[in-house]
Amino acid sequence: MLKIGDRLPAATLQEFIEVEGEGCSLGPNKFAVDALVAGKKIAIFALPGAFTPTCSAQHVPGYVQQAEALRAAGVDEIWCLSVNDAFVMGAWGREQKTAGKVRMMADGSAEFTRATGLTLDLTAGGLGLRSQRYSMLVVDGVVKTLNIEAPGKFEVSDAATMLAQAQQV
């Protein structure tokens, strides 16, 4: 399992881009994680699924509300990561008004999630393999903080905790 001091695993994530520009075409675009994190301080929070209750009511809105404060603390980008496809993540981002604040990163095949060891098996509930709920602060590809939630909890991966950590790192 991923831990503090580890380098993020090599993987590809997708993001639904609403407007063409900066070398990105409209629609789902693939990005290599190592290229995206190089030289940057990134707050990543992961959750079990798009449009799910806690994720939609608390987790994403908290990061949207704290985006400016996180940037003031030196965070270059904020990523919301989920084992969903890029179309779903794009639609959820529109609903949550994340544009310009939080990048909605799709790990559709759970490639990144499996490589981190932070999987959550929700097959019994009909959701299949998903990501655990967690947050981490990554600097130049290295994990500086890692906040993994206990099953069914939302206590340590919130935006306020990440902001306090970003101000220290």
TrEMBL record:
Major enzyme class: oxidoreductase
Thioredoxin domain mapped to chain residues: 2-168
GO cellular component: cytoplasm
E.C. no: 1.11.1.27
Alphabetical keyword list: Antioxidant, Oxidoreductase, Peroxidase, Redox-active center
Pfam entry (one): Redoxin
GO MF, one annotated term: thioredoxin peroxidase activity
Swiss-Prot/TrEMBL catalytic activity: a hydroperoxide + 2 glutathione = an alcohol + glutathione disulfide + H2O
Family to which the UniProt record says this protein belongs: Belongs to the peroxiredoxin family. Prx5 subfamily.
Protein name, per record: Glutathione-dependent peroxiredoxin
Native organism: Kinneretia aquatilis
